[in-house]
Amino acid sequence: MNQLSILINGMPLLLKGLVVTLELGVGFIALGLVLGLLLASGQIYGNRLVRIFCSGFVQIFRGIPAMVLLFIFYFGLAQLNINMSAFVASMIAMGLRSAAYQCEVFRGAMQSIRSGQVVAVQALGMNLLQRIRYVVLPQSLRYCLAPWSNEFAAEIKDASLCYAIGVTEIMRQGRYIITATFGNAMLIYVTVALIFLGVTSTGLWLLRRWERRLRVPGL
Amino acid sequence: MNLVFDWSWLGPLGRGLLVTFELTLIAVSAGFVFGLLLAVGRVYGNRPIRLLSSTYLTFFRGTPMLVQIFIIYFGLPSVGIMLSSFVSGVLALTLNSAAYQAEYFRGSILAVNKDEIVAVRTLGMTPLQAIRHVVIPQTLRMVIPSWCNQLINLLKFSSLVYMIRVPELMYEGRLLAMFTYRNFEIFLIVGAMYLATVLVLSQVLRVLERKVRIPGLGAKGA
Amino acid sequence: MELLKVEDIRKAFGSLQVLDGVSFEMEKGDTKVIIGPSGTGKSTLLRCINLLTKPDSGTVWLDGVEVTDPKTNINHIRSSIGMVFQNFNLVTHLKVLDNVRIGPMRVKRIDKKRATDLALEKLARVGLTDKVNSYPAELSGGQQQRVSIARALAMEPKLILFDEPTSALDPELIGEVLAVMEDLAQSGMSLVVVTHEIGFAHSVADEIIFLEGGIILEQSPPEKMFTEPKHQRTREFLQKIAHLDGYESRASEET
Description:
Chain A is an all-alpha fold and 219 residues long. Chain A is built from eight helices and no strands. Chain A has a domain at 20-168: MetI-like (MetI-like fold). In chain B, helix 5 (114-122) runs antiparallel to helix 6. In chain B, 76% of the residues lie in helices and 0% in strands. In chain C, a hairpin with a 2-residue loop joins strand 9 and strand 10.
C-alpha cells in the first residue's frame, strides 16, 4: 500500500479529529471571550480589589505555559480526586488561559477609546452602563477586531496542545495513522499542518470580512 | 487532601530550568539572525525571494508549534534525516521564532522613514549600504519591545519539547511526577517557576528597553 | 429665583489651587461669557456646574435644585444642562442623526419617532439638514461643532455650557459656529460661554466674567468691561486678546 493511499484512507480519521479540535478550540475561545470581557471591565471600572484580582489572574494564566496548565487541571486535579475527562479539563484550563489573553486585547481596545466622547455623553446624562453600551463597547469592538483576530488564530493552533493529555483530536488521529497503518510521518504531519493552515486562514478571512463591514470613517 | 513538598525536587527541576534557558537563548538568537534575513528578503528581495520568504512565514506562523516539532522530530527521519532530541527541539523553536521575529522586523523596516534612505542614496550609497547604515540600526532599536515579547513567548513554548524528550523543565517535572505521583504539587511548582521567570524577565527587559531608548525613534506598529 | 447659582467653588489639583472661591449667579435668558488667561480654571469652573468635575467645596444650584448634593440624581440634572466641548466629542461611530437623537432616546427615553423629529428640527436650526446621514469624520470642524450644538439642543436644556467652542477650529469656520450661538442667545436660551472670542463677548454677552488666579477678578457688562476695566490685570489681558483678534477696545486706545 503506497503512502498516498494510506493518507487518503486516513483522511476521514483526520477529519474526525479536526472536528474535536474545533469543538475544543471554538469552545474555549468562547469561554475566554465571556470571561475576558468581564476581566477587562473589572480592570477598567472595578475598585482596587477587583483590579488586583483581575490583573493577578491575567498574569498567572498568561505567565504559565499552556502545557503546564493542562497538566495541572487534568493530572493534578485527578490526584486530588477531582476527576474529569481530558476534554473537559482542556476546556477549563484553556478557557481560563484564553480569558487572560483576550482580556488584554479587550482592555487595550477599551482604553484607546477617546475619552472626550465618553465625557460628552456623560454630560448628556447617561449613566455608566449606558456609556459602556452606546459608546465604549461599539468602538472597542472595532478597535479590538484586528488584535483579536490574531489572538483567535493563535488559540485555534493551541488547541493542538490538548493532544498531550490524551484528547482524541487531530494530532492523535495523525499519530494513530502513522503507528497503526505505517503512514509516512512527514507526509501525515505536513498534512495535519496544512489542515490547520486552512482552518486559521479561513477564520482570519471571515474576520477580515466582518471587520470591513463594520468599518466607519474616522475610526 | 494532603499536599507534600520535597526540597529534593528542586534539584532536577532546577536543572530542567537551565536547559529551558539554554534552549530559549539559542533559539531566540538564531531566530533573530534568520528572522532578520527573512524580513530583508521579504521587503527588498526580488520576486522569487519574496515568494519563498512569505511562503515560509505563512507556514510557520499559520501552523501549530507542536506540529512543527513533530514534523522535524518524527518527519525528518522518515525522509532520512536523523537529529537528536535537543537539536530537533532547538531547530523547531528557531524556525518558528524566526517567522515571528521576521514579522516584527518587517513592520519596523517599513516604518523607517523613506526620506532618510533617499538622502543617503543621493550621497552615493548603494542600496545595500543604505540598508546596512540606515535601515538596520533603526530597525534593531524599534523591535526591542516586540522582541522582548517574543523571548518570553519562546520561553513558554519551549515547554512543548518535553514531548520529544528534551530534558527541560517540563520534562523533568513529568519525570518527577511519574515517580512520586505528586502531579498537583509538582506541576504547580513548575508553573510557579515559569511564572517567576517570566515576571523577572519582563521587569529586566523593561528596564533595558528604557535605557536604549532614543527620543524620536518610536516603534510604529512594531 | 435665579436659574443658576454658583457659590464659593474651590478646587485644587494636587498642590495647584485652580479655583479659590468662585461665586456668581445668572437669570434665565442671560448669556455669561467667562474670559481669562489659560490654565486659570475656566474649563474647571464650567465642569463643576454639571459636576463632571467635583468641586472640593462650594455649591451649585440649578433652578432651585442643589446640583452638588450627593443625594441629587446627577444624570437627571445633566440632562437639563447642555454642554459643547472644544473638541466637539461627537461619537465617531454614529451618524450625525444618531448623535443628535441618542440623548433624547436613551437618556430621556423619548420614543424613536419623536426623538427623530426633534433631532431633525435642531439640525435644521443649526443649518445641517443635508448632513444627517454623514459620519462625524466626514464633516468639517465647524460642521461637527454645529452638530454638537444640535445634540445639546435636542435635550431641550435649561442652560447650555460652552467650553472654548471655537478654539479648535480653523479661522474661517469660527464664524458659522458663533452665528449659531448668537442666534441661540437672542432667542432666549441661557448660555455660559468660556471663550477668547472678544467680538462675540462684546456683542452677545449680558455680563463678562474675568477669571484669574482662581478667583473672579472682575465682573461687568461688556461695555463697562471694555471701556473702564477696574483692574490693571484685566486691562493687560484685554489688550493682549484684542490685539490677537484685530479688535481694538477703547480701553487700549487710552493707554
